[in-house]
Design a protein that fits this description.
The complex is a heterodimer of chains A (76) and B (523). Chain A has 76 residues and is mainly alpha-helical. Chain A has helices spanning 2-16, 35-57, 61-68, and strands spanning 28-29, 33-34. Chain A is built from three helices and two strands. In chain A, helix 1 runs antiparallel to helix 2 (35-57). Chain B is mainly α. Chain B is 71% helix and 0% strand. The chains are: A mainly alpha (76), B mainly alpha (523). Chains A and B meet through helix 1, strand 2, helix 2 and helix 3 of A and helix 5, helix 6, helix 9, helix 10 and helix 12 of B.
Chain lengths: 76, 523
């Protein structure tokens, strides 16, 4: 369930990358930042926020335990 | 020497390189003498060092110099094209693939990708097939770093040695770079420095140096941005100047600067990090899976800190410098903005150190991973793992690193003036990205087969070869785009589609892996 939510949220985030509505917009945000650049700078922050939520809510803790167990076979 | 030429930038760069040598000596003091320590730092790296070393490895010299030049040429869309996609996709790959490979590596003692693929696909031959492909894809990436370092040092030191390194144009006039250290010498110095700390400190030397280098290039980028924006009378005045220029104003948006399909299909390029052998090795250094958290979360923010200032400097340059003359490279835009606006030899020196830091932080990991792969994937596989002591394995790796550095350096000097070397860099990323379905399926799909893996590798090699030929080797029609696009999309998209279809189709109809293998990797 958690994995499905993460995948769907990731796909929505990926779709939001395509900001076609700002394609021709030359306006400046805060008086200096072109709106297309401002959008994608904010997008990077949202991506970081997304991965922070994933790390809090859907971190694969079990894998740590599995990695620490003795493997029955080493690199051959 | 011209009295207006200051030696300060050279002294700052020398000081920076000396610090790196010191770091190499220090890291070698912590060396435990085992091959596990030399190759994967005894799997002991914590969150901060993992973040810094991975970020430093993924960001090349392109992050500072190339991003500014590309923004000068194509405008603000370059950030969305390369940086914001990378922020999302790199972290996704670290989370979805990196952590799982770390776990498998820790449990079964893997050090290289080929070792993992050999066991996962029950094929010793697969490692021998994959090894030369991975090496061939890494080498042009190395060449880009070596050549960029040589040329950058020459540009930074121009005029400092007018008699020793005088250059002139064919018409007899002085060359603009006359008096600078020749590229073969600058590239040689950089190779020797990297060789020193990798040779003695192993991957620990690379991790420590990467951390230091990442701090240096992030801080210098921000300082350069602050000083340039101040000299342009503030952020607002610098950006408003673009609106008044017909040449500059289109760079404030994306219309006419890039295609929408190109913008979308660039998302496939960052998948390459999933197959970088040097990044695989860095993942294995983590002490725990929890150490990946900081890397996954902070990576997009770090990209933002490095790229936004460079993109802004690049577009401001379109208004400040105007159109570049014939023979002037957009990659020189950052240097020209610093020189013209700041006129500070100290800042020029720090920016020079920052650019070299970004270049070297990728070179060291790549040299190190090639030595590791040769030792573990070729020598040990041929002669048996009990044939060599730990000390001998380290000696073999050091010997191969030395040979790789020497070959790369000689190749770099021979190709120093080739027009196509930087294009090869993009094709390296496309090749690694084309192999991403292989690693993704190996981690998540129990049903992927040995034959499917071979099909994926060959499909990638063939589709990559055809598109590479069209872009680099075949004669292009007059007026065609610089960057090869297929129906408006990046070629990497088609390489990934072809390799995925081959992997899935062949896996569905061929012999499944044994139950023991499935249990081993999917318990």
């Amino acid at each position: 369930m958690k994995a499905t939510v993460v995948i769907v949220a990731f796909l929505i985030l990926a779709a939001l990358h395509q900001d076609f509505w700002l394609w021709e917009d030359k306006s400046l945000v805060f008086g200096f930042l072109p709106v297309g650049l401002a959008y994608h700078a904010a997008y990077s922050l949202v991506a970081a926020l997304f991965w922070w939520l994933v790390s809090k809510l859907a971190w694969p803790f079990k894998i740590e335990q599995w990695a620490d167990e003795e493997g029955d076979d080493s690199a051959s | 020497m011209d009295s207006s030429v200051s030696l300060t930038p050279l002294f700052i760069i020398i000081g920076y390189l000396a610090l790196l040598l010191g770091l190499g000596v220090l890291s070698s003091r912590f060396f435990k003498g085992t091959s596990a320590d030399y190759f994967v730092v005894s799997r002991s790296v914590g969150s901060f060092l993992l973040l810094m070393s991975i970020f430093g490895t993924t960001m090349t010299g392109f992050a500072l110099v190339g991003s500014t030049g590309k923004a000068y040429t194509n405008g603000i869309g370059v950030y969305g094209l390369m940086a914001s996609w990378s922020g999302l996709i790199h972290s996704a790959v670290f989370f979805a693939v990196g952590i799982r490979l770390w776990a498998v590596g820790k449990r079964y003692g893997y050090v290289t990708q080929c070792e993992y693929f050999r066991d996962r696909f029950e094929s010793k031959t697969l490692g021998f097939v994959l090894f030369p492909i991975l090496v061939l894809l890494v080498i042009p990436y190395l060449l880009v770093g070596v050549i960029a370092a040589g040329k950058f040092i020459q540009a930074t030191t121009k005029g400092m040695f007018p008699e020793a390194f005088a250059l002139s144009l064919p018409n007899g006039a002085p060359h603009p770079l006359s008096g600078g250290l020749p590229p073969w010498m600058g590239a040689g110095i950089i190779c020797l420095i990297v060789l020193f700390y990798v040779f003695f400190g192993g991957l620990r030397g690379a991790v420590w140096a990467n951390t230091f280098q990442t701090i240096v290039f992030m801080v210098t980028g921000v300082i350069a941005f602050y000083m340039i924006s101040t000299r342009l009378h503030g952020l607002s005045a610098a950006s408003h100047a673009l609106l008044e220029s017909d040449f500059a104003s289109p760079r404030l948006a994306r219309e006419g600067m890039m295609g929408k399909m190109q913008f979308l299909s660039y998302c496939f390029i960052p998948l390459s990090v999933g197959m970088f052998p040097h990044l695989f090795q860095h993942w294995l250094t983590a002490k725990s899976a929890k150490n990946f958290k900081l890397t996954v979360v902070a990576h997009p923010i770090f990209i933002l800190i490095v790229w936004v200032p460079c993109i802004l400097i690049g577009i401001w340059a379109t208004a400040y410098l105007g159109e570049l003359g014939p023979g002037q490279s957009p990659n020189a835009v950052l240097g020209r903005m610093v020189n013209k606006l700041v006129e500070s030899p100290v800042l020029t020196g720090f920016v020079g150190a920052g650019v070299l830091a970004a270049i070297m932080s990728s070179l060291d990991s790549q040299f190190m991973c090639l030595g590791t792969m040769f030792t573990n994937d070729i020598v040990i596989k041929i002669f048996g793992k009990d044939r060599f002591s730990d000390g001998q394995k380290i000696l073999i790796a050091r010997g191969f690193i030395l040979a790789v550095v020497l070959c790369t350096y000689l190749l770099g000097v021979a190709l120093m003036d080739s027009a196509h070397v930087f294009d090869l860099g993009v094709w390296c990323f496309s090749g690694f990205a084309g192999l991403f379905p292989l690693i993704f399926a190996a981690v998540y799909w129990k049903g992927v087969t040995k034959a499917g893996a071979y099909a994926c590798i060959f499909a990638t090699a063939i589709s990559w070869g055809i598109l590479f030929y069209r872009d680099i080797l075949a004669e292009k029609p007059a007026g065609s785009e610089d960057e090869l696009l297929v129906w408006g999309a990046m070629p990497v998209m088609f390489i990934i589609i072809v390799s995925t279809i081959a992997l899935v189709a062949v896996s569905l109809f061929t012999k499944k892996p044994t139950e023991a293998t499935v249990k081993k990797f999917f318990a």
